[in-house]
């Protein structure tokens, strides 16, 4: 038995708050069992073969019983699988990580625990509340608002007399009782309280009040679980320290791994960008024709160009043997990418090139289909249906028509019916046409340039 279970902390919600080792473990996993509070974007870090199981528990509605989860962890590990048990926040801060570890230990299963950033601390920071501060709180106390049916009762006398910050998790159903107990045991009813829902995520919401009025505020602003209840003087600092960026609250969907710059710029402006999977690229085994026969090389896309260079090297051909050939790029993106490697390509097919002496390099289908075509790779669809509710997105960004096809290919029937309600940013005219054709309700055309697209997204949402 070489299996292993990793109890992995996913962090408080925003996928970028996962640890580096956490990302690596997801990539290595054969099976991932994940919780309800996990941002589905994290699943994009798994490999294509991994089995993904939602064991998410809805409040009062256990999808998969804890005993069943324990059993699954043991069974999969015994089959020799690398199992990741992906848990919100830190695995050992509530959420039954300790119980799972005990079971694994009892059954002799090899396991490890990888910490995560807990919402109980980071969730406050995301709302501009330092959990300690020399002037306001010299300790903090993290307390569960949820108890085993006949389990322990809280020592309210003790809790109410703490000078430090008190954070309740899983407490929303008990909020009136929590406030009442604190006041009854001596806390001033004027003590500041913050409720932070979906902390660190695009849908983060917060209300601030005191022990007397917080219940009414929560009802008025319709806040519910999952949320943190923060009691203490540090709450007052939120007014001064809560940072809102231009795209705070904007939730975008973008293609995975491509355009890291697009992702970074949007996140830096405060947006949350989730990913959708692109098709997998499979290089094809090809025989290189004699290069000397051609005057021009038509490059359909950047990937084909890289595959082509690899093929040259494999055949012992120096790239300088292309020196007298015209390099023709099928679109501006190829032009830009080639420029970075020092090649100034011609955009589009010039009239004066004799067709029979061109070789076109691309994926499965040629763009021009003149002269010789060398198919260098194939695309393999990912099997995963996108684990998102598309209604939750402010927009999707498409850098290419291929990215639209990949997106549509991984939608369920229900998701397909939601496309007409989605806003799409299309980088370029062709992409715009494809997005309209795909049925997007509102298509915004952007220049085919990351920087300019980011500016456009910013303008679009800052006006809202
Ligand atoms: N292990 C987790 C906590 C699990 S208990 C951690 O370390 O964060 C589940 C409770 O955590 C929820 O009921 C809620 O009170 C809190 N919680 C988790 N993520 C949250 C988030 N992003 N925003 C607000 N509360 C959150």
Written description of the protein model:
This protein is an alpha/beta fold and 464 residues long. It has 4 domains: 4-117, Cobalt-precorrin-4 Transmethylase, domain 1; 121-241, Methyltransferase, Cobalt-precorrin-4 Transmethylase, Domain 2, CATH 3.30.950.10; 251-279 and 382-463, 3-Layer(aba) Sandwich (Rossmann fold); 281-380, Rossmann fold, CATH 3.40.50.10090. 29% of the residues lie in helices and 23% in strands. It has 15 helices and 24 strands. It has helices spanning 20-28, 66-78, 97-106, 119-125, 156-160, 175-184, 214-221, 238-241, 260-268, 302-314, 332-340, 401-409, 413-418, 429-437, 450-462; strands spanning 4-9, 31-34, 51-54, 57-58, 61-62, 82-87, 111-114, 140-144, 165-169, 192-197, 205-210, 227-231, 251-255, 272-276, 280-283, 296-299, 326-329, 346-347, 358-362, 372-375, 377-380, 395-398, 423-427, 442-446. The chain has a 5-stranded parallel β-sheet, sandwiched between helices. α9 (260-268) packs parallel to α15. The longest helix has 13 residues, at 66-78. The N and C termini lie far apart (56 Å). The model has no long low-confidence stretch (mean pLDDT 91). The structure holds S-adenosyl-L-homocysteine. S-adenosyl-L-homocysteine binds at residues 12-13, 37, 87-90, 93-95, 118-120, 123, 169-170, 196-201, 225-228. The site of S-adenosyl-L-homocysteine has 26 residues, from α4, β10 and β12.
């Amino acid at each position: 038995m070489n299996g292993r279970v990793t109890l992995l902390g996913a962090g408080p919600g925003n996928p970028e708050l996962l640890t580096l080792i956490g990302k690596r473990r997801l990539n290595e996993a054969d099976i991932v069992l994940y919780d309800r509070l996990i941002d589905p974007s994290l699943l994009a870090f798994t490999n294509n073969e991994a089995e993904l199981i939602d064991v998410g528990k809805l409040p009062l509605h256990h999808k998969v019983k804890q005993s069943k989860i324990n059993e699954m962890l043991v069974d999969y590990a015994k089959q020799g699988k690398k199992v990741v048990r992906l848990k919100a926040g830190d695995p050992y801060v509530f959420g039954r990580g300790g119980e799972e570890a005990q079971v694994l230990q009892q059954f002799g299963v090899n396991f490890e625990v990888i910490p995560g950033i807990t919402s109980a601390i980071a969730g406050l920071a995301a709302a501009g509340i330092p959990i300690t501060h020399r002037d306001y709180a010299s300790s903090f106390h993290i307390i569960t608002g949820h108890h085993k049916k006949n389990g322990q009762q809280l020592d309210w006398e003790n809790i109410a007399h703490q000078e430090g910050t008190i954070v309740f998790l899983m407490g929303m159903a008990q909020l009136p009782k929590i406030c009442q107990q604190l006041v009854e045991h001596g806390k001033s009813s004027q003590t500041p309280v913050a409720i932070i829902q979906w902390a660190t995520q695009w849908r983060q919401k917060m209300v601030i009040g005191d022990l007397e009025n917080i219940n009414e505020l929560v009802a008025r602003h319709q806040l519910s679980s999952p949320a943190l209840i923060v009691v203490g003087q540090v709450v007052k600092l939120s007014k001064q320290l809560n940072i809102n960026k231009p795209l705070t609250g904007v939730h975008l969907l973008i293609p995975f791994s491509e355009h890291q710059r697009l992702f970074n710029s949007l996140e830096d402006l405060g947006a949350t960008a989730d990913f959708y999977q692109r098709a997998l690229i499979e290089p094809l085994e090809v025989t290189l024709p004699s290069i000397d026969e051609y005057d021009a090389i038509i490059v359909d896309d950047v990937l084909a160009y890289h595959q082509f260079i690899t093929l040259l090297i494999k055949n012992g051909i120096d790239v300088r043997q292309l020196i007298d050939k015209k390099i023709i790029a099928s679109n501006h993106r190829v032009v830009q990418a080639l420029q970075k490697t020092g090649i100034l390509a011609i955009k589009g097919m010039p009239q004066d090139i004799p067709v029979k002496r061109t070789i076109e390099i691309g994926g499965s289908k040629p763009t021009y289909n003149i002269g010789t075509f060398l198919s260098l790779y194939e695309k393999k669809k990912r099997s995963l249906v996108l684990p998102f509710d598309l209604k939750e997105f402010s927009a999707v960004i498409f850098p290419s028509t291929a990215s639209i096809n990949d997106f549509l290919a991984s939608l369920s029937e229900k998701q397909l019916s939601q496309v007409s309600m989605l806003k799409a940013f299309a980088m370029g005219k062709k992409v715009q046409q494809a997005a309209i054709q795909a049925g997007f309700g509102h298509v915004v055309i952007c220049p085919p340039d990351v920087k300019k697209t980011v500016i456009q997204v910013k303008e679009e949402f800052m006006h809202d």
